[in-house]
Amino acid sequence: MKKLAMTAGFALAMGMSAAAMAHPTNSGYVTDSEDTVWRNSFGECWHTGFWSKDDATVEGCDGYVASTTAAPAPAPAPAPAPMPAAMTDKKFAVFFDFDSAVVDSVSDIATYIKGMSSVSSVRMVGNADPIGSSAYNDALSKRRAENVAAALRAQGVSGNVMTVDYLGETAPVAQCSGRGAALIACLRADRRVDVQITGK
């Protein structure tokens, strides 16, 4: 009777094993209906009678460890496009001695122009103080503007972007009174060439 019970128990266990045979996913291992591999009390995976070394593809069973492939690094974000340079206007003033059209220096103006990425225009406007006749002051202010343009060309600034104009004594900025040397000194601000530079 005892032998019969053992035989029945063994048959039942075999039946359970047969019912819990490996899924195609976990071929060679005993699994339940959810494809979970059965393990013994030592944590070892149960093999079917058809198990071979080729079936050792279940992570944690028979020393198999799934390979870990690092995800590729994301491509770097493209650099933002540079903002286009804005057009700017810059003004300089070149001052003159009384009744003179001699240019002292325009190196600071030339340096600024050469540092620009592009130059649209360089406009010279000559001015004179009100001492003397209007006709004389017109001619003097024109010579002053032309001499500044020539000095800039000598410093390497292209003449193609230059224009020359003159206003004579019609655009004063000095507020002066008196006579003689004091008046002449006060009117220095009117003896000038305004240089307006437009570009990037």
Automatic annotation (TrEMBL):
Gene3D superfamilies: OmpA-like domain
Signal peptide as annotated in the record: 1-22
Keyword set includes Signal: yes
SUPFAM superfamilies with a match to the protein in the record: OmpA-like
Principal localisation: membrane
PROSITE patterns: OMPA_2 (PS51123)
UniProt name for this protein: OmpA family protein
Organism: Neptunomonas phycophila
Species lineage: Bacteria, Pseudomonadati, Pseudomonadota, Gammaproteobacteria, Oceanospirillales
